[in-house]
């Protein structure tokens, strides 16, 4: 299976597996920082801050249409919960392989980018509540922390 | 009082009890999210939470892989002071920045007291 991986997936899988094997739970904090770096480099300047919905919409548009890291992203706001559905992720193979190796799905860059964006746009803290693979889609649930 | 406010009270009491040996401290989650902090001016609380959680995570992995049991605390000695990170509950860390030559015995003792006080705060919130 490893031979069939696209190069970017092979690199991401190796980086994430290596990080998990050395840093364990500390990888979560590292991924939070990686999400912040991605957000500040590629999204922050062009974020529409006029409302929470607009901020989420503009982040989805930049990720899917400009950076082309997935086929599409949609979101739903349910009180303190934000649900993000990602389809056609370019890192799907790496994610599947990490999951197969028993490595938790904490390395999802979308989840960590959205956490960084939400914290910057709203001033509140957010945590990743769950990341579920649903066939070819990934459902990310984020929660505002009191 | 807010949860953050309650944790800040615990942190201030911890600092007072160490009579100047702890110059800053924080409660953070193991995913690097800051919960509350009392830090010197100019210290970025998000960096403290992220780096403290990373160090504690690596310590946990070391203890596990080398069969050393659960990590009780991580101490990093620097030429200008120390950093101590200790787990104080499920997914929660107490991080302390110390002066150059602190009384570590007193700090460890007071960290345990602060951990108990922090657990009480979390317990009251869950009820």
Per CATH, the architecture of chain A is 2-Layer Sandwich
Number of folding domains of chain B? Answer: 1
**CATH class placement of chain A:** Alpha Beta
Which strand order do you get reading across the main beta sheet of chain B?
Answer: 2-1-5-4-3
Class of chain B in CATH?
Answer: Alpha Beta
Question: Total number of helical segments of chain A?
Answer: 5
How would you describe this structure in keywords?
heterodimer; A: 146 residues; alpha+beta; Muramoyl-pentapeptide Carboxypeptidase, domain 2; four-stranded antiparallel β-sheet; 4 strands; B: 127 residues; Beta-Lactamase; globular
Structure description:
The complex is a heterodimer of chains A (146) and B (127). Chain A has helices at residues 7-23, 26-42, 52-66, 92-100, 109-122; strands spanning 72-78, 81-87, 125-134, 137-145. In chain A, strands 1-2-4-3 form a 4-stranded antiparallel beta sheet, covered by helices on one side. In chain A, α1 (7-23) runs parallel beside α4 (92-100), α2 packs across α5 (109-122) and α3 packs antiparallel against α5 (109-122). In chain A, a hairpin with a 2-residue loop joins β1 and β2. The model of chain A has no long low-confidence stretch (mean pLDDT 92). Chain A has one domain (2-145): 2-Layer Sandwich (Muramoyl-pentapeptide Carboxypeptidase, domain 2). By secondary structure, chain A is of the alpha+beta class. Chain A is built from 5 helices and 4 strands; from the N terminus they run αααββααββ. In chain A, 49% of the residues lie in helices and 23% in strands. With 127 residues, chain B is an alpha+beta fold. Chain B has a single domain (3-126), classed as Beta-Lactamase. Helix content of chain B is 46%, strand content 27%. Chain B has helices at residues 3-17, 45-65, 104-126; strands at 22-29, 34-38, 74-78, 81-89, 92-98. In chain B, a hairpin with a 2-residue loop joins β3 (74-78) and β4 (81-89). The longest helix of chain B has 23 residues, at 104-126. In chain B, 41% of the residues are buried. The mean pLDDT of chain B is 93. The A-B interface holds A 21-30, 32-33, 125, 127-128, 145-146 and B 2-3, 29-34, 49-51, 53-58, 60-61, 64.
């Amino acid at each position: 299976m490893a031979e069939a991986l696209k190069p970017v997936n092979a690199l991401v899988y190796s980086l994430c597996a290596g990080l998990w094997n050395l840093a364990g739970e500390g990888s979560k904090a590292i991924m939070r920082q990686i999400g912040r770096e991605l957000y500040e480099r590629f999204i922050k300047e062009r974020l529409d801050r006029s409302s929470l919905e607009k901020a989420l919409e503009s982040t989805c548009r930049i990720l899917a249409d400009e950076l082309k890291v997935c086929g599409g992203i949609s979101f739903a706001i349910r009180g303190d919960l934000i649900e993000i559905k990602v389809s056609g992720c370019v890192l799907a193979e790496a994610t599947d392989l990490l999951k197969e190796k028993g490595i938790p799905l904490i390395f999802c860059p979308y989840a960590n980018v959205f956490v960084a964006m939400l914290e910057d746009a709203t001033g509140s803290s957010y945590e990743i509540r769950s990341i579920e693979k649903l066939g070819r889609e990934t459902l990310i649930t984020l929660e505002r922390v009191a | 009082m807010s949860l953050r406010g309650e944790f800040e009270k615990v942190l201030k009491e911890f600092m007072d009890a160490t009579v100047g040996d702890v110059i800053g401290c924080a409660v953070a989650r193991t995913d690097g999210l800051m919960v509350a902090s009392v830090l010197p001016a100019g210290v970025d609380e998000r960096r403290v939470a992220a780096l403290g959680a990373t160090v504690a995570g690596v310590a946990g992995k070391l203890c596990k892989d080398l069969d050393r049991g659960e990590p009780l605390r991580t101490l990093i000695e620097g030429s200008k002071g120390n950093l101590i990170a200790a787990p104080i509950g499920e997914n929660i860390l107490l991080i302390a920045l110390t002066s150059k030559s602190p009384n570590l015995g007193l700090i460890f003792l007071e960290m345990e007291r602060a951990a108990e006080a922090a657990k009480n705060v979390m317990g009251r919130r869950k009820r």
